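S.,

Sequence below, as promised.
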Amino acid sequence: NILARATSNPNQVVKKEIFQIFSAIAMYSEAGYALCLSMLEIIKRENSYFSKFTMVINELNNNKESCTYLTVIVGFINCLLSQHEDLRERLNMRSELISLKLNSIFDDLKRNSNEDLFIQIQLFEKFQRDDEEEAFDKNGIDLNNKFDLFNGVCLKVQNSSFCSQKFLELLQLVFKLEDERNNFKVDDLSKQTSNNLKIESI
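The prediction came back faster than expected:
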């Protein structure tokens, strides 16, 4: 809890050291890795964040001029994505990060000439390609599993802002089904989905 709360310290040097500690802990053992995820969940809960990665994304967005600090944060993300042995969990975490517009942040950061930061971003992209290859070429995607299917679609649309926006609109339509107060009917969803899908297949 002490380390988790330390991430709210306004001193960037302190926060950089905290992320370095997180990375070391995550790489040390499975227990250390689990502890890191637990700390992210604590931060999420105490700040009422939408995602356990919201704090990490906020730090990237709010410190784009500090390459050394950004390099440490992206390195921490890479530690989390490279240390978990379960492919599905890696895909789930990456999809969660991508939903928070991590790819757009990386596009901005690539304009920076800092070599160390660029290397960490390249590592993220390499891990992503490796996982995509394993998911599609080796294990495939279980079309009857909603999590596998969601992750598969996220991977397919992530490099197209147009398709990503259409997918987001579809998710927003589906989400309305949860709210019975809106009297949102399945027929209405089908009609709106049909209108939204007048695009090339993704």
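The chain is about 75% helix and 0% strand.

Coffee later?
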